[in-house]
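Aim 2 progress update. The chain analyzed this quarter is reproduced below.
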Amino acid sequence: MSALRLVSSAARRSTKTFATGRRGYAEAADKIKLSLVLPHESIFSSTDVVQVNISAATGDMGILANHVPSIEPLRPGVVEVIESSNASKKWFVSGGFATVHPNNKLTINAVEAASLDSFSAEAVRANLQEALKVAAGNGSEEDKMEARIEADVYEALQYALASK
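Predicted structure tokens:
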């Protein structure tokens, strides 16, 4: 038997033995159970929400019920939680991971998170300028790299506050 016929024969047999799952679309009444946790605090614990928007490393994405299971690294940015059709809450996270589990569960593990309302645009602007100054200065490479990371977070925070 040729290799091609062997592979196609095995593929035909395997589709009969394995059950195939189907992904449906989220209904308006469907909810996803959100757990948003920090090392020292749990902001949400298996709370039913309509949608969660995250700043993933691969781009911004919205997560609804029946989302395909995945793991997404988070970049500094906003996590928006939509609890009902007109109520939403926003947090700024410095990084972490979002894990979409089967059965409509989402876990977000973040290093740090704070309500977007708790930031001052002026303080963010001043801290960004200071971090950029250190990153461009004559300090050690370690200090310059830390300042560059700090500047990246402040730039993301400044963007989030501007589009609030």
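Strands lie at 32-38, 41-49, 51-56, 59-63, 70-74, 77-84, 87-93, 96-101, 105-110, 113-115. Residues 121-163 form one domain. These observations will guide the mutagenesis experiments scheduled for the next reporting period.
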